[in-house]
Amino acid sequence: MVKKISIISILFCFAFGIHPQLIEKYQNGIDSYSNGNYQLAIQEFEDILKHDWESPELYYNLGNAYYRQKLVSGSIWAYEKCLVIFPSHKDAQYNLSLANLNVVDKIDLPDLPIYLKWYETIRNYFSLQNWIKLFVMSLFLIMLLMTIRKTLYQNWLKSIENIIIIELIFIALLCGHSFLESKSNSEGIIYSPVVIAYSEPNEYSSKIVEVHEGLKVNILDNNEDWVNLELLDGTIGWILKSQIREL
User: Fold this and answer.
1) pLDDT tens, 142-177?
2) What's the CA dihedral at 92, 97, 99, 105 to 10 degrees?
3) 189 contacts 247 by C-beta, under 8 angstroms
4) Which of 47, 133, 227, 229 has a Cα-to-Cα distance from 20 of 20 to 30 A?
């Protein structure tokens, strides 16, 4: 079994340009998690992230290790990062819902209309990169069908082309929406157990609200030491940058 793992690791490294040391760290993290050494697993997975390499499974396993260590903020951050790359990751979705049960701050928003729920479900099924890939594939397919129809005089293909054109328009809408959202929205997870948000980027200004670890917030602005955040209910305040981890 050891030999098989080594061969697979080498092939994986060549295929994706990953340094063998990172593969070794990842395997060490998996082994540490299996042996109940969750802190060491966290250390190994975080070291991989410092080398600017990421994947859905890396974040998912990191989230599991944080969750086992009862570190709510770390587990939520990791699961959220997993879902950014792979929005339809069912296990990450489920584990995130479990981790969120431990968040002290509960901000309930009104339910979306059913048609918006359907739209958001479809849009979040793939990441922006995968929607773009699907758009390119559909565009290639329609060009191929048009070529076949005009070359072989197969007019019945016209109806299929019309369906794909409608699909292309819808996918373009999803891509545009996801792209604008990714550019306009910067989010983060509160990382300290208790955090005070101030009206200005200093501790001498008025206290606006107290929030707790694990809460997901929007980031409006930041400077060297402070971050301007917005809660889901519209409350805005400044907290220290060390108290939040950006997604």
Assistant:
1) 888 888 888 877 788 888 888 888 888 898 888 888
2) 140
3) yes
4) 133
